[in-house]
Amino acid sequence: MGRFVAAADPSSPKGTSDEAAAVKDEKGKPVANGARNTWVTETALATALNVSYMAQQLGLFTIVVGIALLLSGVGFIILALAFFSGGDPKPAEPDTAATPA
Description:
Layout: H1 34-84
């Protein structure tokens, strides 16, 4: 799409990018192509909407992963406490010196 309205076919949304072949206003400046401006604005707004949706979903994913890591850390702490606070791991040997043979 051209930046300006074409003088040869003003009803065409295709337009022209050549300032000499464009329709001129009262001041002698080329008239902007309204269809192109609408398309550019629509594209920018759609991109902004998609980026904000992606950011929201990434934020939600981050929260879920953080909770999962927090729960797994608590589970590992419980396992470590159960494993390392079990007392003496080898059984006590009976005292054979006090009993007569």
